Amino acid sequence: VIFKTPRFDEEGKKIKNALFERVILNGVVIHENKEVTGATREGFEGAEEAFAPLKFQGDHGSVAYRNIRIRKLDNIRESKHGKWVDLFENTKKGPNYDFIVQGDAAPGDGDKMFEYDGKTLKVMYEWETDSSTYAIAVTKKAYSSYDLKFDFKWGERRFKPRLELIKDAGLLFHCQSGSYAWPPSLEYQIQQGDFGDLWCIKGCHSDVLKDGTIIKHKQKTYSRAKKWEDKEQDGWNKVLIEVRGDKAKYYLNGVLVNEIVNATYGGLTLTSGFICLQAEYSEAICRDIKIKEIY
Fold first, then answer.
1. Nearest in space to 140 (alpha carbons), one of 68, 83, 77
2. To which H or E segment does residue 283 belong?
3. Which of 12, 33, 42, 155 is 20 to 30 A from 171 in CA distance terms?
């Protein structure tokens, strides 16, 4: 559930209704952009508020809830169309991103997975053991049409369970959740020898467009479409993705290596979502992470 509370002016007058931006049940979008004019009758008594407790109901028989996660979507920057800006920002009110670690993370694990100094994102350089889980650095804002670019370089260390495997990372876009580390999304694969592969993850899906021909592939929980050519080089690599709603072009070092169209999720056209950079058992560095919203 992605929910926005009602908004009030300085005098307490409501100026904007609450909004269910998206509600997803078992991988199917069942509500999208639905305004609500008042509180449910089974909620807390009193007038609507911008900040209030959450209440889980169980008044019609036995129920069970598990894996309950919440992420506050604050410090969201207004769109600056046509201008390159930092994807991640540390503002006076706090960061416009989160570090999310898979599983039962200990306090501070996110800061051991990622270090961000306003320009460079170091991945797993502060991780202390030889084994790890995986994690994401994820925006609090959902994006739709934009160009995103950054420089990428591998570090030295790898971690169990990929200690003997090729180094792996990734750029996830159109993520339908930012509360856990492997959300439904589309991926620009960043892996040794596989820069620019497409991965469709947990119900998100797309076709591939090559030489003017749409290439369809079977929708699965995880599905892959290989890059067209290998343009990875030693040291720094320049990653660029141009996203236009349900379409995207993948570039590596100035060369188009993949293109997708007709993105979908939950029975609907997939046109927006959060952006994530992954930590997947390998040291890596991303620098000059810039985004330019188109419209």
1. 77
2. strand 282-293
3. 33
pTM over 0.85: yes
Listed in sequence order, the residues at least 6 apart from 74 whose beta carbon sits closer than 8 Å to its beta carbon are: 93, 94, 140
Beta-bridged to residue 123, according to DSSP, are 114, 284
- 212 to 184, 186, 208, 228, 269: CA distances (angstroms): 27, 21, 10, 14, 21
pLDDT at position 10 is 87
Give residue 92's pLDDT: 83
Q: In this predicted model, what pLDDT tens digit does every residue of 95-113 receive, in sequence order?
A: 999 999 987 777 789 999 9
| Stretch (H or E) spanning 28 | strand 28-36
- Select from 232, 250, 229, 254 the least CA-distant residue to 241: 250
List all residues 6 or more positions away from 106 whose beta carbon is below 8 Å from its beta carbon: none
C-beta of residue 236 within 8 angstroms of C-beta of residue 176: no
Kindly tell me the sign of the dihedral angle through the C-alpha atoms of 268, 280, 276, 4. positive
Instruction: Tell me which amino acid residue 266 is.
Output: G
What whole-number distance in Å separates Cα of residue 196 and Cα of residue 239? 9
